[in-house]
Every structure is written in structure tokens, then in C-alpha cells.
Amino acid sequence: MWSLQNLLFILCISLRCATSAVGVLNVTGYLRREVNISCSYDLGYESYEKYLCKNSCGRGDVLITTTNPVKYKYMIHDDKIARIFTTTISDLRSMDAGKYWCGVKKFLKDVYTEVELKLVKDRCCGTVTKILNYQGYSESISCPYERQYHNSLKYICRGNRPSTCLQQALITSYNKENGRFRLDDDKMLKKFTVNITSLSQEDSGYYLCGVQRNFDHDVFSAVLLEVEEFCCVKSTKINGTVGQPLTLQCPYPPQHRDNRKFLCKGDQHNSCMDMTNQSRFTVHDNVSSSSFLVMIAELEAADAGTYWCGSDSQWKIGNYTKMELSVFLQHTLGTLETNNPALYVVYVVTPVLLLMCVLFILYKYRCSTVKGDEATSRNTQNKL
């Protein structure tokens, strides 16, 4: 036989209990995580016992009460000032999904709020936007959202775990600047943008853009950011001669055909000096071969060093050529290395000259031998 409490509950539900005007409270939780179910109540019920139950809410279906606020994986707290009691369910499993009831215990007729708990996996997302950038530069991550969320809290976090994203947010729309991170919300375009400056390889990884929803799980979009060390298409070594002209060839991506082309000098690409405004440096663009030529007139010893060819002043693409230029000075005798490792004095001694020296020495030796033989012959004749 059904108990009086069950009969009263069925009667209450069939009459919609009159006092439960909030409708169904939809709550979403993440598997293996915890969820909070918060239910409000009217003024005057502060001292009444509150509870959470499941199914038909019979005696065995009551999970937790404010009289015994901690039980197994359930914990309940009653904020009497805000008139909201919150039940926390930890270690969520698939069997925890379903219908619950927030109850306020009264004589004969309890007050109920229906709760529907949905569980989802704690990972995101089906679609991931991939972004590639390089060390030392900035990146803007664009996060679109729907119109109804234009006043909602926006945020971004690292990783791909939605359940802890807000707690571990790098920055939010309430706190728009945090170190290298800045968040700007464009409500007209329905997107917020997170700018990250001074990128390093440690910034590589997954990011979640989040939009908070009050009565359901937050909305997320995923981004995979890859930060690579700056590198070039190729690195070449080039030799030149003091006083002579030199031509350097620099390839560039076809989409950069209308960009300004430049050659800069320096050990690091982000601190090099543009040389194309120097009088001895002339740039000629060869669009058909997607390359440009830099002609240097009358090389100087000081021209030796590291050069970078570029076609994008932001160094955004990374499609550049690094060149190590060594400058030599021509001479005619021997070889002498100077203190400047890029500058050498070269002495040229031809094989013909060496051969002439050898023949001359042999000739002198032959002449002295013949004279010696003649002198010996005269001495012998005189003695006879």
C-alpha cells in the first residue's frame, strides 16, 4: 500500500502544487565532476527543512536534507538570506541523470521545484580552429557567439575541460586585462577577441572560448594555438669581394607580390636594420619568379654579416631567407687572415711563376757546374 506521503505527493504533483511557479529547472553537469542544483524559496520558509529527492520522491528517494547536510556524494547548504538552498552532487555518473525535486517540508503539503539534470562528457569540442604563429609576436583569438548572449560573461581558458574553464579563466569580460592577455567584446559583430602578446612556445596548446549561461551549461568553442620558433625557407652562405658588386636573390610567397620587399641586416630578424634605403643597395622585383634581387654596389669589408630577406613587415608568415655574407679582399702574394673573420687578404701565386723560378734555379746550378769543370780541366793541362 502506498503511504500517506506518497499519496500527498501525487496529489501535489497533479495539482502542480500551486506554489511551484518556477517551472522546470534545467541543469547540466559533467561526467566524473560535480554539479550544483540551486533552488529558491519564498519568504517565510527560512526555518523549514529543505531536501533533494529523486523519482517519485518517496521516503527512500530523499537523497539529502538540511537536517543531515552531508551524505555520501551529496551536500546541501541553505542560504537563508538569499533564500536559496544548493545541493552539490559529486562524482557524477550516467545513472545520476534524470528528474529531481527540490523540496521544502511543510505540514501536509510540501513545496516542490522540478529539476531536470542532463550529463555530458567533460571535453570540447567537435570543431577546433587551428592557429599558427611565431615566437615574439602577437595573436588575436576570435570567439563568436549568438545574439542572445551579448550581455553574458565571456572568458577564455587553457585546455579542453569545460567543467573547470571558468574557474581557471585567463581573462574574462569583467576583467579585460591580465598581463599579456586582453579581451575585447564587440557586441555588434557578436564576437569577443582575446589578444595575446609576446608569444612563446609555452603558449602552444588548446584554448576554450566560453560564454556563461545561467540555467544551462556554458557555450564553448575550441582553438588550437601552435607557436613555433621563427625560421626561414632556407639559410645560405654567400661570398663577395671588396670593391666589386654583388647581387642577392630573395624568394617570397606568391601572395606577397604587392608587398614591399626589403633586406635587413642583424643577428636577429626582429632587431635587424633595413638596408634597402642605403644608397649602395638597389631592389629589383622579379614577379614572374616570385623573388626579388638586391644589388649591392662596391662591397665594403663592413658589409659582412647576417642578412634577412622579407616581404612582410610584420614577419607574420615566416617565409624568409637568411644569408651569411663573407667579404674578401683580392691581392697577389700569399694568404693572410685578418682579425675580422669575414675579411681575408688573398695572395695569388701562379703556377707559371713557380715554374719559371725552378727553371731559373736549375739554369744557375747548371752554369756553375760547367764553369767548375772547365776550371778543373785547365789546371790539369798546366801541370802537364
Automatic annotation (TrEMBL):
<feature type="signal peptide">
    <location>
        <begin position="1"/>
        <end position="20"/>
    </location>
</feature>
<feature type="domain" description="Immunoglobulin">
    <location>
        <begin position="24"/>
        <end position="120"/>
    </location>
</feature>
<dbReference type="InterPro" id="IPR036179">
    <property type="entry name" value="Ig-like_dom_sf"/>
</dbReference>
<dbReference type="GO" id="GO:0005886">
    <property type="term" value="C:plasma membrane"/>
</dbReference>
<dbReference type="Pfam" id="PF07686">
    <property type="entry name" value="V-set"/>
</dbReference>
<feature type="transmembrane region" description="Helical">
    <location>
        <begin position="342"/>
        <end position="363"/>
    </location>
</feature>
<dbReference type="InterPro" id="IPR013106">
    <property type="entry name" value="Ig_V-set"/>
</dbReference>
<dbReference type="InterPro" id="IPR003599">
    <property type="entry name" value="Ig_sub"/>
</dbReference>
<feature type="domain" description="Immunoglobulin">
    <location>
        <begin position="235"/>
        <end position="328"/>
    </location>
</feature>
<dbReference type="GO" id="GO:0004888">
    <property type="term" value="F:transmembrane signaling receptor activity"/>
</dbReference>
<keyword id="KW-0732">Signal</keyword>
<dbReference type="InterPro" id="IPR013783">
    <property type="entry name" value="Ig-like_fold"/>
</dbReference>
<keyword id="KW-1133">Transmembrane helix</keyword>
<keyword id="KW-0812">Transmembrane</keyword>
<keyword id="KW-0472">Membrane</keyword>
<dbReference type="InterPro" id="IPR050671">
    <property type="entry name" value="CD300_family_receptors"/>
</dbReference>
<protein>
    <submittedName>
        <fullName>Polymeric immunoglobulin receptor-like</fullName>
    </submittedName>
</protein>
<feature type="domain" description="Immunoglobulin">
    <location>
        <begin position="128"/>
        <end position="228"/>
    </location>
</feature>
